[in-house]
Amino acid sequence: HSLDENVLLLFANHLIHLYRLNIVQDELTTPCRYPDSVWSEIEIILRENKRQWLIQMSTQGKCKCEPYWPGSPAPVRAIVYNTCSIKVDKTSIYTCMEQYKTTLETYAHLKSMCRVYVPRSFLERADTAYIGAVKTFRYLHTIAIKERISTATCLLIAYYGTRNNLKQFYLRRNCVILRNEYRKYLFNENGDN
């Protein structure tokens, strides 16, 4: 069954001891968009009862589409891609940055990409989106990256992460490109890579 807005409201009203809600999406999940009004209503109910939810969004199996993002007041704490069919998309990272900048604690791609084209150009990869995510998410303590990123991106993620709350930074063994592409693209300088 799908987790629709009525089921979420029933959970908020009647399940007193519900603390962690895992929303799992796989290839059999039917599309469901949650309106912002439902999450505002759930937030009011939880505040009245002095409770709090920790929501983890995850994609599993052969799922090839992005998660169906809950609206802005949803307390999403973790976003986990546990599938090898989805590549990192900059727009999904920017969506997370916009909606969950005050609540997100974990952002992870757990399986390596098999048979998915990963662009080689710096401007086509998600390097700048990862750096923006580490700078934007206040409570981000874990990030796992499985796609190719440059060495400068790794260093900037570590730098901005230590200034914020980042405690765990996971990289796939062969995903680091030994290039410094920031001078060329961000500062419009011509020099050695």
Automatic annotation (TrEMBL):
Highest taxon, organism lineage:
Eukaryota
Q: What is this protein called?
A: Uncharacterized protein
